[in-house]
Amino acid sequence: MQSEAMWQRAILLFQQQRWDLTIRELRGLLGVAPDHAPAHALLAQSLARTDALDEALSEAKRAVGLDPELDFAYGTLAAVHWQRRELDLAVTAIERAIELDPDDVGHRGTLAQIRIGQGRLADALAAADDGLTLDPQDTDCLNLRALALAKLGRGKEASDSVEASLARDPDNPYTHQTRGLALLHAGDAKGALHHFQEALRRDPNLQGARQGLVEALKARNPLYRVVLGWFLWMERFSGPRQLQIMIGLWLAARFGADGLASAGYPSAAMVVRYSWLGFVLVTACAVPLFNLLLLLHPIGRHALQRRARFDAIVLGACIATSLGVFAYAWLGTSPLASAGWAFWLVFPLPVAGLALFELGWGRRVLQVFCVASLGFWVWWRVRIEQLLAEALLQEQRLSSTQIAAATDALLAPVRAHQEIFHSLVLAVALSTWFVLLAPKGGKRRRQGADG
Known about the structure:
By secondary structure, the chain is mainly α. It has 22 helices and no strands. Among the domains are: 1-102, Serine Threonine Protein Phosphatase 5, Tetratricopeptide repeat (Alpha Horseshoe); 239-437, no CATH class. It has helices at residues 2-15, 19-32, 37-49, 53-66, 71-83, 87-100, 105-118, 121-134, 139-151, 155-168, 173-185, 189-202, 207-218, 222-234, 239-262, 266-294, 300-303, 306-331, 341-346, 348-353, 361-396, 400-437.
């Protein structure tokens, strides 16, 4: 009797989204009934809401182990794997949950959500439709169906689906968020902004709506609308297909430039050759650069996450330094004035790329690379100054005849370090491939149609 009362209190607290109290109540219940599989599953969901994903995964696995026939346990395991971005494992778990209870519409919604995360939009649409076959009024499946349709470029159908969801539950923040995402895909930044604000008015902690609000504010700029359109278009494809598109664009730029050069159009060849660098510059820098501008917006600066603000400020400092180096190279009169500017031409690219990564190994690798590259450039710059000073000192000790004979030997160390510098610039330029193609990672806080 005591355990049943504790279980009912835990369910009520969970429904009220009072995660800490839910966790405390469930731990008390498990102290009395340690083999209560549903309690372990609900504890896993509560822990996941607080981003304690390792503990959540352990509790979800414990629930499955205690009752291998409990579909709720497998559904919870799938949700935790999804938040950890372990999407293949999430699919396996949710398919087992559907096998155990084919009539649970929530499992179909979870499958649709996972498929969206995998970029398998047609499969996501099919899963949402299966859920709506079971319950035509299910809000989550309506929202997920609308999101899948929007990402597929079927804006009219997406609008119809989300309007049906709004008509049924006009105060649901996730429905307003989905409507905002659909409008953003359709290019209606103003309408999207309204619905993201409505979503946040109903749930100020809804991270998907907060991110959407930021994108809608930036999308008011015509240049960013083009960049956003590219990002949204790429979302229609799976990871391998995105890789194929990027390699195809690079090959087109390379062989197109070679063909133009062979045909006697060197200027056009140069434009095409550097178009790839321009493309990378725009796609990598647009997000943090417009985030930097958004810091001046009265709403935008509050909507930006702390990490996004930090990334924008770091990029701003990097660009300011680059401009300073270019100005010194242009106006400086010392022999070293023009040394090293090429590094600052490409270094903002990986720095800007940091803003595209969520927390995870990809971001850490890029952070280490940026710090190491900057440190290497500083070392190289100091070392070049030392070598030139040493060469000048030795030159002063030689006669004019000896100088002519010893010039190559005196400058040999400088040339060797110039080769090192060229390798550094090449490595930084090649890091753009990592920025474009590496998994961006990230963990989602809540199971729901947040896209």
